[in-house]
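Usage

Read records sequentially. Each one opens with the input sequence:
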Amino acid sequence: MTITNRAELDKCRESAEKQLNAYDCRILVCSGTGCIATGSEKIYKKMLGIAEGAPGVTIEFGPHDEKEHVGVKRTGCQGFCEFGPLVRIQKGDHVIQYIKVKEDDCEEIFEKSVVGDEVIERLLYAKEGQSYVQPDEIPFIAKQTRIVLENCGKFDAESLDEYMAAGGFSALEKALFEMTPEQVVEEVDLSGLRGRGGGGFPAGKKWKQVANQKVKERYVVCNGDEGDPGAFMDGSVMEGDPFKLIEGMMIAAYAVGSSDGYIYVRAEYPNSVARLHHAIDVMEEKNLLGEHILGTDFCFHMHINRGAGAFVCGEGSALTASIEGNRGMPRTKPPRTVDKGLWAKPTVLNNVETYANVPKIILEGHEWFRTIGTEGSPGTKTFSLTGSIENTGLIEVPMGTTLREIIYDIGGGLKNGSEFKAVQIGGPSGGCLTEKHLDEPLDFDSVKKFGAIVGSGGLVVMNVDTCMVEVARFFMSFTQRESCGKCTPCREGTKRMLEILEKIVAGKGEMEDLERLEELAEMVKNMSLCGLGKSAPLPVLSSIRMFRDEYVEHIVDKKCVSHTCKAMQNYYINPDKCKGCTKCARNCPVSAISGEKKAPHVIDNAKCIKCGSCKDNCSFDAIEIR
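and closes with the structure output:
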């Protein structure tokens, strides 16, 4: 049935809510990319098969008879990625969160927790002797504030009915029937919503600039080309709540007078692409996309473009060039995207998280949004929490939350109780923050003071065993590889910087190299054409500023205290542990180990190629790296 007016939308929403509430039990299987990688699709199929074959059980969405009504659903990312596959059992308001579920657990879960009312203790998350049944009780989740991720993990990610049952399209309805386009722009502007893609530019100001253009043909574009290593926030929203993203884009289109929208998604996100295509198809069938939406004059069509994985296409002008079928390369500015963007027409370009904030702002108002976060950075921010952290996963917290709260209260501290050293924030275009920054608020303005950026929201936590020189080399290698080559400062400057860093980690650095590295970094930052080049040196500059002694140690002492840099590793056989079994010598590819049987052996470091074969083969833990 198509939805042609406001009354029909309200009727469909009421019907969907009634049908959703009719379930006696819902089995919510996390189908975010992380859980899919650990086998959640097998869990889903197994649960579905059990439910379909169970006597006295019906699984259809809709009215049912006296049978037990069970729903088996694929949800978006439930956030607790470290402990996937994740399964939630929902009976009314009571929800059980099971972790690390295996296929062999499915029968027991269905029998005890779906048909029965038992809780399986061994599948619960436990910390320091305490088990947590409901997901909202788990500290990792309880300490978050979810706006963008509000529906992720709670509803079928592919169900339009379930989205409507959760109030979906209420914001679009309000905008179309109770607000003028100018009022929508003003509401977003007053909310203080800033672009969540990394730059932090005020969304309302951008919308206002496009709405005021004399050219009437305009476009709304979503940047879903999330390229930072270790970042998966936007991907999780696209695959976990695609209808919310589309609703946010529709509101933006209504506000600025656009009839066409484009979502640019990186090809490495097939799950996101598939669910977005499905969402668009379903909405077109219902007439929620297309011509005269809800019987109004508002017409809007959605298109999806897949990027080829070029990091530089996260930059606005490179992204629009790629959509047009050209090589994704940034252009000089002005003109900016708001003036001449896609097809040289005025374009609103925001990222996934920015658009996903819009429906709630329209529904609740700008005053509500400003009660969350900080004065200069209202609202929440999603982060992907990775690295040497107990609870890796997807989180959403108010802007201004401190690193200490994120790492220790939500993240559960560092793995194996190791000591914190630094966190890389903002991906390869960001910078590192250290222990002295643990109590500083994380927001767009505060982080800039320390030579870093919030970026799209990647947080990589590092312990004391991390070599910061190697970290800088890794990120510089990434950005140098991803440089489009259009401007000389980025094309040549990042290459020279990488060469110096490789020289230092190879144990061949000189003190002059450190000065040259800083000089090049400043040049690349100040003279590059686009954001990629301007931010590429930040990891290097911040690591030199925070950990200069490590650079000096690599250069002067030819030593890497974390034993990460292979060229500076020296293998040594502890004579107190060596039993003279000769296994290390027999496996050494260059015959660098000598010694008599049943007597301690020695390594000739002049011959040693540092392959680690001796350490891998030693049965007595006698091989040490110094």
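Summary fields computed downstream for this record:
- The two ends are 71 Å apart (CA to CA).
- Residues 488-505 form the longest helix (18 residues).
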